[in-house]
Each structure stands twice: as structure tokens, then as C-alpha cells.
User: Fold this.
Amino acid sequence: MRHGRAVDVASPPEPMPELRPIPSTGGLYLAGADGSVWRAAGFDARGVWRPPKRCATRVEGGGAGRNHRGRYLRVNTTVRGVQKDRPVHRLVAEAWLDGYHPLLVVHHENHDCRDNRPENLRCMTRAEHERLHGHDVTDVDVANARYDFELRRDDPWPDPYAPERREAQLARPSRRAGPEGRRDRAAARLDALIGMCVSVNERENEDGQR
Assistant:
């Protein structure tokens, strides 16, 4: 008995890898060294103590869409009554990789989207990821490309920087633009981003001198 509640010892716990808590779930879910996701131990709705349990994963969608939902493993999580369908590789990266950030891309080193072991995952900017796959980085929008300019903030777009943000957003290429138009817009976007970062640094220096 524990705290007056029955403890279920009929079935032994299944073998489990080293587990680490996933911060965004408040420790309710754990990520394993083998790339698995587990529900943390605790009492269920009937008051029975349950050991950590491996979560079922699945591949959604019939093909590789914009979010590659047809390739990556996903898992359902329930935190404070809210259900979310989340990619397994991002949960593992959040728990195991020091450089993880929600706005960074999590890349599979061996290009196997279902091999979610921490040693197979690496965080990088979206522009770095595009270059790695041989894509034109001018297609990367300003909201993600800002990390190439070391603008790393807990709140990347605070209100004081709204004018610079608007200027950078205006430089985004049109989907209908031709090659020359896209290059011109990419150059304008680059200038706007650099100006935004310089402005942010100047303001931070001014704040530090006060």
C-alpha cells in the first residue's frame, strides 16, 4: 500500500532505456536513449500506481506533405487536459540535446526519419538545414532565417523591434516572383535582417549602459 492506494505489482515493468524528462510536458513524459517516448510513472484515474509506460507511435498522412507528416513518427501527449499530436524526434531532442530551441530544426544525421536516438539528432537553423539538403536558402523566410544572424532571444519579436520586423517582412519574396525577382528580394531581406540585428544590438548596449 502507498498513501492508502493499491499498488499494482501483478505485471513486472518492461525493460526501459535511460530516460530523461521532457521539459515542455512538465515531466509527465520522458524521452529514452533509444529514441522512444514514455509516460512517467504515477497513479492512474482508478488510484492504481503505474510504472513508466512506452507511448505508442505512428506515422500520420499518406505522403510527405509540407510538415513531412508521412515520414516522421508522432505521439499523442496529454498535459493538463490538453491533447497534442507531437513529433517524436523533437521531444527526444528537447530532453537530450543542449542546443535545442523550439524554433530550430531537428535534423536526422543518417537521414532515417524514424531513427530518433539522441546521437542521430542535431539542432540547426532552417537556413543551415536547407543548405545541407542543397536547397536555395533564398526560399527561407525571415522568421526562421533570423537565427543565422545570432538574434537569439527568449522572445525574438518584442514590441520595441516591431519597425525592424515589419521592414524585414516586407522583403519576403513573392511566390510568383521569377528568379531575378527572388534574388532581388533575397538581397533586400538580407539587408533588412542585418539592419534589424544591428538595431537590436545597439538597443541592448544602450540598456546595459543605463
